[in-house]
């Protein structure tokens, strides 16, 4: 449950429009639903820490950024999977691979996140890994674990929150 009831009311009143907005960018309503849920988690965390002047605009901006990032990721993945041969796939991968400086910069944060993931209960860890690393939808996670979709959402949210707390402590 949100620590900020005003944020929840704002989100719920705009949720259908946010899904339509994300869907218009991604072209996929199911993916748009997941993006809006992710946007809620980010918006709730941000609104808990500070007063947001244009909260509605900020919420739409989160959805837009997530939708565009998702669309870019799909384009990159399709370029890799449609590559005719190994040499072309390797060239494309090299074009989008992070540079050594970026790898070094995030190496410590990666280690913290992996340690935090190891601290999670097994079911929460599996749900979080499936969603964040495997790109699985909440419905797929629920089916795999034999749980409800809301519980799958809670497990993923709890896992992400745990990792964020560990990163903030570092």
TrEMBL record:
Q: Which keywords belong to this entry?
A: Sigma factor, Transcription, Transcription regulation
Domain RNA polymerase sigma-70 region: start-end pairs: 10-75
InterPro entries membership: RNA_pol_sigma-70-like, RNA_pol_sigma-70_dom, RNA_pol_sigma70_r2, RNA_pol_sigma70_r4_t2, RNA_pol_sigma_r2, RNA_pol_sigma_r3/r4-like, WH-like_DNA-bd_sf
GO biological process: what's one of them?
Answer: DNA-templated transcription initiation
RNA polymerase sigma factor 70 region 4 type domain location: 112-163
Task: Please give one Gene Ontology molecular function term for this protein.
Answer: sigma factor activity
**Family per record:** Belongs to the sigma-70 factor family. ECF subfamily.
Q: Which PANTHER family match?
A: RNA POLYMERASE ECF-TYPE SIGMA FACTO, RNA POLYMERASE SIGMA FACTOR FECI-RELATED
Identify this protein by name.
Answer: RNA polymerase subunit sigma24
Q: Which organism is it from?
A: Thalassospira xianhensis MCCC 1A02616
